[in-house]
Amino acid sequence: MKGPIKQGIYDDDIEYDLTPENLFQYLFGVAQFKCYGLIEIANGKTTIFVELPTTREAVWEKFLNLEDYKNRYEIDDALAVTELENYLKQYNPDGTVYLYKGKNPYSGL
User: Fold this and answer.
1) SS3 98
2) 40-64 confidence digits (pLDDT tens)
3) Exposed / middle / buried, residue 52 (Cβ in 10 Å: 0-12, 13-18, 19+)
4) Main-chain dihedrals φ then ψ at residue 96, nearest 5 degrees
5) 90 phi and psi, to 5 degrees?
6) How far apart are CA 39 and CA 23, in angstroms?
7) Which domains are seen in the chain, by residue range?
């Protein structure tokens, strides 16, 4: 599942006020942007993949580290979004992935 993304309004520096997809919020409780959530059906293990800040971004804002995500949202594991592809290859060798996708019913995005 994919969490909320930042969506700009035209060419302005204003962004839509987006909230997480209801089901994503219900299953993971994560409100940060650019996250992906994964639930292993066989054992119920929950993992989120988060986009880690660049050094430049980290100077201006307080970001959670991976351990903070695990503790705050009481999930089994938190990894960088760059590890998603390798994670799927390692733990799902047959390649079967069930996706939940669609438009946000509130924003239409």
Assistant:
1) coil
2) 888 899 999 998 888 877 777 778 8
3) middle
4) -80, 120
5) -75, -45
6) 13
7) 22-91 (3.40.350.10)
